[in-house]
Amino acid sequence: MLDVQESTPCWVDVDLDAVGNNIASVKKFLHSGDVRLMAVVKSNAYGHGLLPVARTAMTRGADALGVTHPNEGIALREEGIDAPVLIFRPLLPGEEEDIVRFGLTASVSTVEQAELLSAAAQKFGLRTPVHLKIETGMGRTGFLPETLKAMANRLFSLPGLEWEGIYTHFASAAIDSSFTRRQFQNFCGIVQDFAIKGIEFPLRHVCNSAAALLYPEMHLDMVRAGTLIYGQLPAGVTSPALDLEDTWSFWTRVIHLQKARSGATIGYGRTHRVRRDTVIAVLPVGYRDGFGLDVQRRPAGLLDLGKVIAKIILGYLGHPVGSPYVSINGTLAPVVGRIGMELSCIDVGNIPDIKVGTPVLVQVRRTVVKDSVPCLYRCQVPSHSNSGPEMQT
């Protein structure tokens, strides 16, 4: 771990070399020079930092960048990044002029969006690249096949639009292979119908990280990789073909040490009772930082439901299952009591040499960490202004 000021209560350590190595590993896995790689840098590059990751991605072989919102694409352009940038979400009326002015690529899900983009392109005397989004089962955005068929002549007669790509989004690539294959077949059928009519798209893409690993036959012209470049495999997916490196860690420090007698209770609701004399360390992190947060999913079946109920009962009886731990001085320490908004407690009674200021490695949800938490970037890849570690906020 790199040194930071002892007065820094929390920080994120981002390894840009690891990001670059992961991108190179994914590129190697694609193995065909004809398959492009889009590095997905939405949500502040999954909490890693939009600009540093985007620069690293393009340096290490990515062919394009993907973001959700136009302001993310504009931020890339204003920092001199001229790579192709695809905006995933539909545009609000009024955003189309920025798309054209900054040379971004829009996803088109309705004729109305296409008409606004066409008008903006004509206003600036430019041709703007667009990708046609097809809804095949995600149920979110994109043309329904029957709507697209009815609107095709109107859509493709609009001036100023360069139909660079066509794509869809898989709903459950890592879970439901039959549904994924059905989505793919529907997508290919639409592309084939267009080809018969003489309408070709240079970039066809359907694969996210999970699909890229599980269905290599679906790579087509480009793959959209997010999870993989940040050193993680999608849930439920294993891949011995990829050698991924961890890219991100969240650190905090002990801000207070509190002696606790046997029988004392800790935190809101007095949910934890101390069973022996110990020492409690207080950390300046909580659920506001994404600590202890988990996505609540609907149980997949009766067995899954039974597990959820059992965990609730055991927790009520004082035997929580899956309680979070942190790492301090290389040793795991349990979190005790309820995690607060900005303060949490850990039991360090059996760990020597703990003092105020001792660094603590904490597992938090990357994409909800506050922007005010500084990032410490480590890299050997030259960036816009430096080539070494730098603390940024």
UniProtKB/TrEMBL annotation:
One of its GO terms (biological process) is D-alanine biosynthetic process. This is Alanine racemase. Transmembrane segments: none annotated. Substrate binds at R140, M341. The keyword Membrane does not apply. It comes from the Bacteria. Pfam families: Ala_racemase_C, Ala_racemase_N. One of its GO terms (cellular component) is cytosol. Its cofactor is pyridoxal 5'-phosphate. The keyword Isomerase applies. Residues 247-378 form the Alanine racemase C-terminal domain. PANTHER family: ALANINE RACEMASE, ALANINE RACEMASE, CATABOLIC-RELATED. Keywords: Isomerase, Pyridoxal phosphate. Its EC number is 5.1.1.1. One of its GO terms (molecular function) is alanine racemase activity.
